[in-house]
Specification:
408 residues; globular
Length: 408
Amino acid sequence: MKESTRVLIALGAAVAGGTAISLSGSAPLLNAVDVIAPIGSLWVNAIRMTVIPLVVSLLITGVASATDVKSIGRLGGRTLMVFILLLAGVAAVVVPLAPSLFALLPAGGAKPALPAGAAEAAGQIASSGTTQTFGAWLTSLIPSNPIAAAANGQMVSLIIFTILLALAIARSSPAARTALVGFFQALGDAMLILVRWVVLAAPIGIFALVLPLAARAGASLAGAIGFYIVAYMAVCLVVTLLLYPVVRVFAGIPIAKFARAALPSQLIAFSSSSSVASLPALVESAERGLGLPNSVAGFVLPLSVSAFKLAAPVSWTVGALFIGWFYGVPLHAQQLATVAFAAVFLAFAAPGVPRGAFIMLTPLFLAIGLPAEGIGILIAVDAIPDTFATVLNVTGDLVAAVLVAKDN
């Protein structure tokens, strides 16, 4: 059975069982479901323990290896620049768009009690957000103690430190660089194995996490999940459609021609939820449908399907807004900017495992005052909107190839 199918079954069973218990109003049953809640917390903790070493190892390996792209000339540098500009552009669209969707939600809804410690963290974030000056925020970007930044979930500071460390490693002596990159590569490989184990246990963790929530929140939980799925898919569709005029304006390719070329790979992406599975169709569309040079298509597309996740700003921003509404934690411009910043730079480091992008989101939740338990909810309901996110990713891959080929 596919991983997404197992997760959906676990989610459906938890929501249905919890709703039935809520409707019954049985105090013994409510107490009984609370007994399994620690299992869900254990699973969330297992996610959290992998994140910091995984982020650091993947970022260092990716940045240090990216400097090797210089050896193949201007093509590599232009490709990386196009990736970053597209991610930044999507973040600039999503950050103002997504909050307007969630403003349509009623003030009341499924708002279970925050997990232990999360309420205090949310209060600290809210109070600091009203008094923090621009100068204080700018100063905080460079951590005085990177270890403390990692321990406290100060993700933006940790990202900046890690990128600077990776650049320093890239410019070290060949022997030192080889040793350090090899170490972090091995650490990343080991952490990915551990992440796969955690993801394998997702149905158990999600059932134990969602069942008590559904029992306490009742039918409103199903309605909240439904709204999140619709909002996620709507934003993905809007961003995907906006990519068509981007190709027309910056590459001069007619929208209809690009749409015809992109359709085969989009259909494969929608049916398989896999960017990698769409790679042969992408190459065919780029070379024959759009007439891109073989050298560009052969370099940009394999790199993009493995490392370029254009849907990251969408999934992270919409996911954070949903969990914020769900738990009653308001997110302001500063918190959304933190998510957007991380999405631009961490999208390249998302592990190649199912729901890996949400695992990378865990420390950001802690940094902006959201409970890490929300990650489990996002993973549980991701199977359906993931098809639309994959279509966005594949379309972005083809757009990146077109923009890189423009000046080739």
